[in-house]
Predict the structure.
Amino acid sequence: MASFPSFPTFPSIDLSAFDLSRIEVAGLDTDKVLGVLRDAAYVAIGFGVLTVQQVQVRRRELMTQLRQLGVGMEQVDDVVKQLEAARKQMRGLLVSAA
């Protein structure tokens, strides 16, 4: 079976203790600010879900095309391993150059 690259782990941000009621700014409606922040979070999560779904669809399409071409999973595994090795080498070069 082909191995797929892993996604980076993002830090967890706990906003449960974030209280806008403690902020006193004249003319600022904290309920509206909170609503806008909530909407922005929903949009960001929605884009993330759509992106993951699109990646899954493209992966399935690619696998279908490879099967139609008669490419075996062993060949796909070999190519994935070569790409992973090249990625690691490139990352090492970029890290050492920085």
In short: The mean pLDDT is 83. Residues 17 and 23 are 13 Å apart (CA to CA). The chain has one domain: 21-97.
